[in-house]
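Researcher: Predict the fold of UDP-N-acetylmuramoylalanine--D-glutamate ligase.
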Amino acid sequence: MLNYTGLENKNVLVVGLAKSGYEAAKLLSKLGANVTVNDGKDLSQDAHAKDLESMGISVVSGSHPLTLLDNNPIVVKNPGIPYTVSIIDEAVKRGLKILTEVELSYLISEAPIIAVTGTNGKTTVTSLIGDMFKKSRLTGRLSGNIGYVASKVAQEVKPTDYLVTELSSFQLLGIEKYKPHIAIITNIYSAHLDYHENLENYQNAKKQIYKNQTEEDYLICNYHQRQVIESEELKAKTLYFSTQQEVDGIYIKDGFIVYKGVRIINTEDLVLPGEHNLENILAAVLACILAGVPIKAIIDSLTTFSGIEHRLQYVGTNRTNKYYNDSKATNTLATQFALNSFNQPIIWLCGGLDRGNEFDELIPYMENVRAMVVFGQTKAKFAKLGNSQGKSVIEANNVEDAVDKVQDIIEPNDVVLLSPACASWDQYSTFEERGEKFIERFRAHLPSY
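Model: Structure tokens for UDP-N-acetylmuramoylalanine--D-glutamate ligase follow.
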């Protein structure tokens, strides 16, 4: 960790606890700052809040008193807190310095960064890069939106390691100096409109990933979205990936992954399922080549890496029915990929938090859907969608109830697919929790012998 002194003896307000706020508060205290944590929820019984208080950190919870801004000229914002929240909105109006937890991770570490963002595929790409590093003698530490708090991991990495960070659009907002050596934008589609208000704001948030890059850095992006992704601010060397044509970067040709005219691996030897994952694989391979990961390690990874939890995860088979957990499908595009992955009849479990998306764009992918079990805030929207397409629709209270109701309608060889197309926060704290509940109920219905 760098001996960073920029926050020593400064009064800093951390808004929003959760995992990243907790780690940010501890780090700020280590760096010599006078830290106050504020959360709109009541934290009087929260273990993390009590831990912070034992370190001498002040915790104010239950509301967002604007008076906290009077003595705290620096604000560290949890990525899940929108800029429309009163205390953040007021901080912006006052011209206070607003940092992100990811920005802190950059300030304290000398390790080069591979940063991954995009509407879909970023977790798969980040995980695959991490796996390729594991297969080599190099070290690539995963962090960020993938579940490992960036500011905590940044304290542990060596300057010779790579920090491989998954970044959401929430985390990219507010970046000032953050500069990855290799940045990846998997794709940009409509998402998180409840947070960003419109598509343009969302696209601009994603572009923050390369705003501080120089000619010595790299941006990897989808060739077929280059007009959406690139801008006048872009200074990095841009390399592309494509499954459709030869590009300056990496591509598929004659069934092989090809880089600079050299065949790396036959696509038939890839273990990761799904046509959509080819783009994720290309982005990960290119990043690892640029980072110096040996080709042998890359190939070893590609022939063994089968995917991640909650992303089209095969859960098991009950009699003749296979169950798949795609809880991480929090938008319609991810669910399109999921629905398009099966030729068998599908019982589709869907619903959750309403982010302002329309679901009619899923209609072309519903051909194999035999029945729908709908739940969450968007239950009525999905019921209307299913009825309009002549599908059998059953309403459920939540994911667990949905799995129970599946048992009443399931037929031999049906695929049971949880692919919500919505965030989980209306009923579950995370998409992981939602996926685990699905798996638990699946196991509860297995026959006991």
